[in-house]
Amino acid sequence: MGATASSEPVVRVNDLRVTFPTADGDVQAVKGLSFEVPAGGALGIVGESGSGKSVTSLALMGLHRGSRARITGLVEVAGTDIRHASGKELRRMRGNDIAMVFQDPMQSLHPQYTIGNQLVEALRVHRPGTSRSEARRRAVGALDRVGIPQPEKRVNSYPHEFSGGMRQRVVIAMGLMCGPKVLLADEPTTALDVTVQAQVLDLLDELRRDLGMALILVSHDLAVVAGSVDEVVVMRHGEAVERGDVRTVLSAPEHPYTQALLAAVPRVEVSRAQRRAQDRADRAAKAGSTGSGTEGRASDVAASAVGSRGEGQSEPLLSVRDVAQRFKVRGGAWGRSTDFWAVKGVSFDLYRGETLGVVGESGSGKSTLSRTVMRLLEPTRGRVVFDGRDITHMKERELRPLRRDVQMVFQSPYSSLNPRLTVGDAIGTALRVQGERDTRKIRVRVQELLERVGLEPGHYNRFPHAFSGGQRQRIAIARALILKPKLIICDEPVSALDVSTQDQVLRLLSELQDDFGLTYIFVAHDLAVVRQVSDRVLVMRKGEVVESGDSDSVYENPQSEYTRQLLAAAPVLDPDRAREHRAERLRMRAGSA
Amino acid sequence: MLSYILRRLGAGLLLLAVVTMVTFAIFYVVPRWAGRSVEQLATMYVGRAPTAEAIAATVERLGLDRPVVVQFGEFVRGIFLGAEYRFGRETIECSAPCLGYSFQTYQEVFPEIVARLPVTVSLAVGAGILWLVGGIAVGVVSAVWKGSLFDRAAMAIALTGVSLPVFFTGLLILAFPVHSWGWFDTPRYVPFTEDPWGWAEGMFLPWITLAFLHAAMYARQTRAGMLEVLGEDYIRTARAKGLNERSVVLKHALRPTLTPIVTIFGLDLGLVLGGAVLTEQVFSLNGIGRYAVSAITQSDLPVILGVTLFGAVFIVVCNLLVDLLYPLVDPRVRIR
User: Fold this and answer.
1) How far is A88 from chain B (nearest CA, A)?
2) Region A554-565 average pLDDT
3) Which InterPro entries does this UniProt record tie to the protein (chain A) (predicted)?
């Protein structure tokens, strides 16, 4: 019922411009944005980082007050003109007419007050007459509404006693306290696991329908908004490049940027073989049009690398048997420690030229597994055989020559590069460590590689801060490649990147695999990404492998309940299929309850 | 909780034992390494006529000829069981906790320190409250009105406060408001129990002097902490709820800002309780700090040892109190 759009829009934005004065001149973060949200309607605002979507949502709350931002145009929420409202009117409107849910639930609740205190405060600031007991009763009701179990008990808990998903529910409950007309959710699920993301999105959708609130869902991921909104605005560089009904925009995008964005979204239904074929075709087309200058060089290097990809190999490159990893957690009485098994008995074989995908949510042990395989940790139990040698309990000194054969690419391209080393040094150091003395040789080698990963040789002397996230990840890949490793472990290599950058990095990894015959272990939480790069897949949960096998069969015919849950939770682009998935999830939850 | 307190107390006792040993070693062992004979040591304590007999008597009286380990053992024994000292034919009881006898005044050290304790505690607690309240208030206002005239003036004064030593600011205060302008009487200690108003009046200037130095540091710390907290996501959440700036600052931003400050306050207060040496000296207040200074100038080893141990006890206790109070300030910290 709530979705019926009345004639009067509850949010109206017309020609919104937000400008930040900086030392290098003005920066226009939003350039003439217009949209409307009808009462009870749902709008998605989608854009990559820097597109101005968060600046827009702060403008809706009037949260630019007191900052240096200059705002022009019309911003009207529930009849209040945000730009001209007095401070008092603005405060009355916040929480009362429009409530906001932020990106990081770990940071957006006050750590030193109970959630009950924070919820009660949200109500009493707007309804000063409400008694404490009444406000508390309402708080318990709101917690119950968003699905916090045992709300009368949990109302006295502190935020750190909740998981990320539960905290996000608490933030939503806080938004509901005054029954706002609009709920503004800025990347509400970006910091959450896939299944939790699905739960939070389902909750938002349900609340919107039941309470007749309007919903503005801001995200960098088209697939996140697809199933939850009626209308979508695609933003780029502060402008709306496309706006319209969600079905139309997603099925028949008009603007080339939207088309590119849609093409870049990894789809869980696309198999590894399809993706490879597509990538190779694209590459051939590109090489055909530009001439194959760099290709020739690349294949020279490839010749020196490890042999080609082959299924019929008898001996695996890496063989892991029943590996387990225990951590001691301090904190018992008298400083006693308890055991925590992060990985409990994992076995797999990895052949040359293959990619093994490891999927799992946070806490599943996937990162620990990759660190154990790399022998950054010594396995508590089990056996790791790499290239025919048992490295399970090898000493650091013996391991050192093997280190060059296994390299790693990390998640955050921002913190994995030393900001005080030039790109050339960052990549070249590994060669120096391995005994190369000739500086000129190192330079030539590094510049060759820079070119190979899509950067310029002239970037040699630059520092990491001069590069974007995607470029930095390319630098990290070059650093991993410099020693011609046999195995590269990629730990969430694209999860910090925008969709289009993510797509480019994935392409690069696949090209390099073709050219150098590389073997990858690809660790990620994104099911679609893992499917497209992996020959075989391990699905992990709480330190155990719940399912493993050929990637197509795992994805198309999942055997374990958990894999099915993950797949049902994966966001999909088609709005109708997204709604089907939502219904499916509700059935599953009803079944398990 | 109980096991935590016991563990911390155990660690505290261990620390005190180490402090005792190190201090003991510095004054009793190092001079010997430096080549001073027992007789030379005794010469310092013999009085006006350093005759051979007098020196020998002193060596015997102080037990300087015995091995260091035995001397240390005697000292520790004295703390727990008390000791007896013989002066010629006279025997003097020194009841537990016995920190020994002053070489110079022949007075028991422990009662001497206890007698001076009220002065030092008055000075430390009064100044502590002043600098805590003053420093935090100035820091908060500076952070909220960052870049304002108030902020810049306060931070300039704070920088001055941190840079100027107490013996300078103290003398300035004595020179102008007291002597030249006659606004205040010369500061002196009046016991609180006798005359509360006189107590406050007499201690006012020492409080201000000691508090100024610390308040300056606290103001800078508070300002920096507050600015960081104001940038946190949960402050944005508080604003998005519709709270006014006062609640945002005083309820949501102040508490996280205070958390680290409570920790330093415990340390600073413990330090000052062990003797605010400079302030007591400048204002001629007869507290533990002044006692320590005179003991050092006279090489009165037992007194130095006693005062050091006392100071260490204060720091250990204050730290323990802070750690026990911490979970009240930050619920994420749990004691086990």
Assistant:
1) 8
2) 91
3) AAA+_ATPase, ABC_transp_ATP-bind, ABC_transporter-like_ATP-bd, ABC_transporter-like_CS, Oligopep_ABC_C, P-loop_NTPase
Question: Domains in chain B: how many in total?
Answer: 2
Contact A63 B236 (CB under 8 A): yes
The B residues from 28 to 67 touching A (CB cutoff 8 Å) are none
The mean pLDDT value for B108-124 works out to: 91
Pick the CATH number of A1-97+182-187+213-265 from 3.40.50.1820, 3.30.420.10, 3.40.50.300, 2.40.300.10: 3.40.50.300
- Tell me how far CA of residue A51 lies from CA of A32, A243, A258, B312, in angstroms: 13, 15, 13, 58
Q: Taking CB atoms and an 8 Å limit, are B256 and A174 in contact across chains?
A: no
* Domain limits, chain A: 1-97+182-187+213-265, 283-405+483-561
- The arrangement of strands across the sheet holding A239-245 comes to A98-101, A182-186, A214-219, A42-47, A231-236, A239-245
Taking residue A311's Cβ as centre, other Cβ atoms within 10 Å add up to 8
Q: In chain A, pLDDT over 90 holds for what percent of residues? A: 49
pLDDT given at position B247: 93
φ/ψ (deg, to 5) at A262: -65, -40
Nearest CA in chain A to B334: A331
Residue A303 has pLDDT above 50, yes or no: no
| Predicted local confidence at residue B336, as pLDDT | 58
Residue A135 has pLDDT above 90, yes or no: yes
Whether the CB of A313 is below 8 Å from some CB of chain B: the reply is no
Residue A2: per-residue pLDDT: 40
Q: Determine contact, residues A304/A448, Cβ cutoff 8 Å.
A: no
Whether B3 and chain A come into contact, CB under 8 Å, resolves to: yes
Q: What is the mean pLDDT of chain B?
A: 87
Chain B residue whose CA is closest to A183? B240
Cα separation of A360 and A367, whole Å? 10
Give A120's contacts in chain B (Cβ within 8 Å): none
CA A381 to chain centre: 32
Tell whether the torsion through CA atoms of A122, A126, A128 and A134 is positive or negative.
negative
- DSSP letter string over B91-117? EEEE-SS---B-TTT--BHHHHHHHHH
Per-residue pLDDT tens over the stretch A308-327: 444 556 789 999 999 999 88
CB-CB neighbours of B260 under 10 Å:
15
**ipTM over cut 0.85:** no
Tens digits of per-residue pLDDT, B227-246?
Answer: 999 999 999 999 999 999 99
- Residue B86 φ then ψ, to 5°: -110, 125
**CB proximity list for A374: less than 8 A, separation 6 or greater:** A406, A408, A489
Taking residues A77-98, what's their average pLDDT?
91
> Mean pLDDT across the stretch A87-93?
92
Q: Which two tokens stand for residue A272?
A: 């590894």
Average pLDDT over residues A9-21: 93
* Residue in A99, A109, A333 nearest the CB of B336: A333
Type of residue numbered A480? A
